[in-house]
């Protein structure tokens, strides 16, 4: 029996999330490293999704394990966990990968628990090790080291990877082979945790202002900003530059800003034309979310700050002295209007 590498293709509002194609692209690389007997397969759960299976095949899935049913129209944790764990139990994948999305971070560990295996969450990369096992790379100790996580005994070996971290290859047309999962065989109605839950609707709450992922200029504040008053200056600067404000974890913890603008392993992955950082140390947890930025400029009062290793322009200065000066320079009513 060959090695089976599974990728869960998350569906939202009828569309497959991009991270599924990124994971499938990586899974093909993993399959090559393992050898000829390895193959890539996908799981697809939802309602009216059969036509989407061909897309997964284009990215290397030779088989799509599909559960297509009106009861699966909306994401319901207990039902989805039961369906995916049931499929995995029946087909015994060796590796099972998920996107570390809002749904994936709830679903993947629950599937792992049901299968009595482990999961490496929020990985920044994955590869195949010397024993042909999955090696999951996760920032550890505040992001100062990259830990290698192995799952030597239990199967499947599971990992979740953030959207935007892996590279999506170009699609190539291939025939799709669909394995349909009949829900009746899973006896969903006999499980109290499943039958008592009925999802009603999903709602989107788009953030105000320019979405972070669409901004050409991102102004990012770290713990070195020092307080909410300075944070307001940073937001004003982002707005004046026609960009968006972003933050590190401590800025969220201090309640200067909201979590949805956090960049890094547990936040967003961004690739703006310009990243302008103030008081950001450069922990791996943050850097992995901004390393695809174009021009990177950072202001930090510590000349040894790791963020300078990934910066094109390094300004050793007090961020809070620089911020008002920059604002004066770009404000339309400022001392030195940038448009003059
Ligand atoms: C599982 C896990 C997931 C995580 N996910 C994320 C994530 O997604 N995103 C994220 O950002 N973090 C994440 N973290 C936290 C991460 O490890 C770091 O702790 C965090 O990124 C550090 O943020 P910071 O650079 O703002 O703060 P610090 O590391 O405290 O750095 C502050 C910097 O500001 C500088 N400074 C201080 N005062 C000034 C001043 N007046 N002017 C200029 N510079 C100044 C200092 O020299 C220092 O370099 C995660 C941690 C864990 C354990």
Would you give an account of this structure?
The chain is an alpha/beta fold. The chain folds into 2 domains: 3-195, Rossmann fold; 212-330, TPP-binding domain (Rossmann fold), CATH 3.40.50.1220. 27% of the residues lie in helices and 25% in strands. The protein contains 9 helices and 17 strands. Helix 6 (228-240) links the parallel strand 13 and strand 14. Helix 3 (77-91) packs across helix 4 and helix 6 (228-240) runs parallel beside helix 9 (319-330). Mean pLDDT is 91; it is low at 336-340. Bound molecules: flavin-adenine dinucleotide (FAD). Residues 142-143, 222-224, 226, 248-250, 262-267, 279-281, 283, 285-286, 289, 299-302, 305, 318-320 line the site of flavin-adenine dinucleotide (FAD). Residues 142-143, 222-224, 226, 248-250, 262-267, 279-281, 283, 285-286, 289, 299-302, 305, 318-320 line the site of flavin-adenine dinucleotide.
Number of domains: 2
Class by SSE composition: alpha/beta
Bound molecules: flavin-adenine dinucleotide
Give the fraction of residues assigned to helices: 25-40%
What distance separates the N and C termini? Answer: 70 Å
Give the SSE order as H and E letters: EEEHEHEHEHEEEEEEHEHEHEHEEH
Rg result:
22 Å
Sheet of most strands: 7 strands, parallel
Task: Catalogue the unreliable spans.
Answer: 336-340
Strand order of the largest sheet: 7-11-6-1-4-5-12
**Tally of separate helices:** 9
Chain-averaged pLDDT:
91
What quaternary form is this? Answer: single chain
């Amino acid at each position: 029996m060959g090695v089976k590498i599974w990728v869960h293709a998350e569906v939202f509002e009828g569309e497959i999330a991009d991270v599924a194609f990124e994971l499938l692209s990586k899974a093909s690389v993993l399959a090559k490293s393992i050898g000829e007997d390895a193959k890539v397969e996908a799981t697809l759960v939802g309602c009216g999704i059969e036509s989407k299976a061909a897309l997964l095949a284009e990215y290397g899935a030779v088989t799509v394990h599909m559960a297509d049913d009106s009861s699966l129209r909306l994401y319901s944790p207990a039902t989805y966990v039961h369906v995916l764990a049931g499929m995995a139990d029946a087909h015994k994948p060796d590796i099972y990968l998920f996107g570390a999305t809002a749904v994936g971070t709830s679903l993947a560990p629950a599937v792992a628990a049901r299968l009595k295996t482990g999961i490496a969450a929020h990985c920044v990369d994955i590869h195949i090790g010397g024993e042909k096992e999955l090696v999951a790379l996760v920032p550890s100790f505040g992001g100062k080291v990259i830990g290698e996580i192995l799952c030597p005994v239990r199967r499947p070996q599971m990992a979740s990877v953030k959207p935007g971290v892996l590279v999506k290859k170009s699609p190539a047309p291939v025939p799709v082979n669909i394995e349909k999962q009949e829900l009746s065989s899973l006896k969903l109605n006999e499980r109290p945790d499943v039958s008592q839950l009925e999802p009603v609707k999903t709602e989107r709450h788009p953030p105000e202002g320019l979405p972070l992922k669409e901004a050409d200029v991102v102004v990012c504040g770290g713990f070195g900003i020092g307080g909410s008053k300075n944070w307001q200056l940073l937001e004003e600067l982002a707005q004046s530059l026609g960009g968006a404000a972003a933050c590190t974890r401590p800025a969220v913890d201090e309640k200067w800003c909201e979590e949805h603008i956090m960049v890094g392993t547990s936040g967003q992955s961004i690739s703006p034309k310009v990243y302008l950082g103030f008081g950001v140390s450069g922990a791996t947890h943050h850097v992995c979310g901004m390393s695809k930025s174009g021009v990177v400029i950072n202001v930090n009062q510590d000349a040894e700050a790791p963020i300078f290793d990934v910066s094109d322009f390094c300004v050793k200065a007090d961020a809070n002295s620089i911020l008002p000066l920059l604002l004066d320079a770009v404000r339309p009513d400022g001392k030195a209007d940038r448009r003059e």
